[in-house]
From TrEMBL:
Naturally occurring in which organism (per UniProt): Manihot esculenta (Cassava)
InterPro entries reported for this sequence: DEAD/DEAH_box_helicase_dom, Helicase_ATP-bd, Helicase_C-like, P-loop_NTPase, RNA-helicase_DEAD-box_CS, RNA_helicase_DEAD_Q_motif, SPB4-like_CTE
Region of interest (Disordered), residue spans: 265-284, 561-594
Biased composition (Polar residues): 561-571
Biased segments, Basic residues type: 572-594
Matching SUPFAM superfamilies: P-loop containing nucleoside triphosphate hydrolases (SSF52540)
Protein name (record): ATP-dependent RNA helicase
Short motif Q motif, span: 21-50
Cellular component terms (Gene Ontology): nucleus
């Protein structure tokens, strides 16, 4: 039975997430309201939808900064559909594209497209479509030739079609939406976006005339929307070149500073008829503009390097055994690390519970396991994405390819096994849980030498408490007996961990394929560790690491010098290759990592 307190908390959460009005009171067409209620199961708008829908309906440019999982997608889709369905005469495929939605990843492209399909069910003359990297170009060309009214696209592939698909009609384009704008820019698509804005005649130009006003070379009926859960200088720049006199949603006064280029920007919380006293600009992310769900419980797990793997598996085992229904996402820094851990979790069946090594009975983790990263075939990525969505009890091992915008229902827990680097990445990773007022936990693994990262997150308003890992380890019986806490002095010497580590190392050394995967993962992990930039380089210093302990975290028995040698070989190969490929775009580098 739920306690009164729990119920009270739930109600508070409900009113923090949902608005007290109805979709129809926001001005949406009754059929759209019905679809939202009946097809999507939405009873009431979320707060961000209640704020954004009337503004988007009004035709103003908008910048939305709202926490992850607060319903931003419908906040822009519903008003666009409202306008398009009311066009008289009815719009036709031959009229081409009216709305363009730019998203950073293929998975997000599919996700937005699927929501769009549902919402358009009763409006068969409005045609949804998508174009994205990895898909068949000629099939996309054929679909564009027939006409797509609302197009969801990743930037690179869209640019490709804008340049090479002459039958792509966009003369009637009215909306450009940047969903997950921060991620689009972080992935290095800034140039592509500017080129897209130029090609579509939608880039704003700064006039040197009076008051540094921004003027537009776009057609007057254009309306651009920019949505982002985090804000930084790059997003600020995109806002400046794409939004004209925008309405700001979700930005409070503390986060805005005078900026002549956003002179007419207005906040939706203020009376929109009043001019602002001071022109504003979005502040730099280093001063803390992150929106996190209030109910999200954030912890860190302090683990020495050599015990990382055993602790990760112990936590996962604990979580899957304690909770009847549970979905967990674990983030890694590289594709190789995902592949290694995926194979390990899928095959490791030794149990430190057994008194004898022969007595191997069951899988260590009993859950369905999936993996997702940028080196997988598009079809496999799609299948994983769909399958994990529908599972009730499952584990997803992923790179940051899953960090942004993906909406997997009922993910209860996020584990950042490899640290995310930029605090924005932290926010997006944890944003895969605690969506729309639901409960969610997040844990980040940090080594004792990395503890300054907590201070870095604090600067952005993110504060974490320590997760008592020893309690979890103590809960596992070893050889049928509970161990006594006081007998060991450090985490590494905990009998459960010692025994599990031994079992893992034997397992890996007995299987040449697994050993190879572990070595590969080790090399790319160290490489990714050295790639931290700026301030973070001070916290995540490869020099502070003991490579032997790192090897242990991949269950490798080899001496560090052995593993180190192959790493050095790789490094010298990489150096030579990098020299050859000088000038390669930053975007491709980042893609390779995820
Ligand atoms: N009004 C609503 N009522 C109930 N559920 C809703 C409502 N609006 C959205 N949702 C659900 O909430 C979840 C989050 O929505 P959405 O993915 O649009 O959030 P988001 O703000 O774009 O998140 P992110 O920043 O992570 O991309 C989805 O599962 C969606 O179906």
């Amino acid at each position: 039975m739920r306690s009164e307190r729990a119920e009270e908390k739930e109600t508070i959460n409900h009113s923090e997430i949902f608005a007290s009005c109805s979709f129809s009171s926001l001005g949406l067409h009754p059929t759209i309201c019905n679809e939202l209620r009946e097809r999507m199961g939405y009873e009431a708008p979320t707060q961000v939808q209640a704020q954004a829908i009337p503004v988007v309906l009004s035709g103003r440019h908008v910048l939305v900064n709202a926490a992850t999982g607060t319903g931003k997608t419908v906040a822009y889709l519903a008003p666009i559909i409202h306008h398009l369905q009311s066009c008289s005469p009815k719009i036709e495929r031959a009229h081409g594209t009216f709305a363009l939605i730019l998203v950073p990843t293929r998975e997000l492209c599919t996700q937005v497209y699927e929501i769009l399909q549902k919402l358009l069910h009763r409006f068969h003359w409005i045609v949804p479509g998508h174009v994205m990297g990895g898909e068949n170009r000629s099939k996309e060309k054929a679909r564009l030739r027939k006409g797509i009214s609302i197009l969801v696209a990743t930037p690179g592939r869209l640019l490709d079609h804008l340049k090479n698909t002459s039958s792509f009609v966009h003369t009637n384009l009215r909306w450009i939406i940047f969903d997950e704008a921060d991620r689009i820019l972080e992935l290095g698509f800034g140039k592509e976006i500017e080129e897209i804005l130029d090609l579509l005649g939608s880039r704003l130009i700064e006039s040197v005339g009076k008051g540094n006003e921004v003027s537009s070379i776009s057609k007057t009926q254009r309306q651009n929307l920019l949505l982002s859960a985090t804000l930084n200088e790059k997003v600020n720049h995109l806002a400046k070149i794409s939004l004209q006199n925008p309405i700001m949603i979700g930005l409070d006064d503390k986060k805005m500073q005078p900026d002549p280029l956003l002179e007419h920007a207005e906040s939706v919380e203020s009376d929109t008829d009043d001019e602002l006293e001071h022109p504003r600009k979005i502040t730099n992310s280093s001063t803390g503009d992150y929106k996190l769900p209030v109910q999200l419980v954030q912890k860190y797990v302090k683990v020495p390097c050599g015990s990382r793997l055993a602790v990760l598996l112990s936590i996962l085992k604990h979580l899957f055994e304690k909770q009847y229904s549970q979905k967990i996402v674990v983030f890694f820094s590289t594709c190789d690390a995902v592949d290694f851990h995926y194979s390990l979790v899928s095959e490791f069946h030794s149990s430190p519970n057994s008194a004898s090594e022969v007595e191997v009975t069951e899988m260590f983790l009993r859950c369905k396991t999936f993996r997702l990263h940028g080196n997988m075939k598009q079809e496999d990525r799609r299948n994983t994405f769909q399958a994990f969505k529908t599972e009730k009890l499952a584990l997803l091992l992923s790179t940051d390819v899953a960090a942004r915008g993906l909406d997997f229902p009922k993910v209860r827990c996020i584990i950042q096994y490899d640290s995310p680097g930029e605090a924005t990445e932290y926010v997006h990773r944890v944003g895969r849980t605690a969506r729309l007022g639901e409960k969610g936990d997040s844990w980040i693994f940090l080594q004792p030498v990395e503890m300054d990262y907590i201070e870095d997150l604090k600067k952005h308003g993110v504060s974490l408490t320590e997760y008592p890992i020893i309690k979890v380890l103590d809960s596992f019986p070893l050889y049928g007996q509970m161990h006594r806490i006081k007998k060991f002095v450090s985490l590494e010497s905990h009998p459960w961990l010692v025994s599990l580590q031994k079992a893992l190392e034997s397992f890996i050394s007995a299987q040449p394929m697994m050993n190879k995967l572990a070595q590969k993962a080790f090399i790319s992990w160290v490489r990714a560790y050295t790639a931290h930039r700026g301030e973070l380089k001070r916290i995540f210093m490869v020099q502070k690491l003991h490579l032997g302990h790192v090897a242990k975290s991949f269950a490798l028995k080899q001496q560090p010098s052995l593993v180190g040698k192959s790493f050095q070989k790789q490094q010298s190969y990489k150096r030579k290759r990098d020299q050859r490929q000088k000038g390669q775009s930053k975007r491709r580098k980042i893609n390779g990592k995820t």
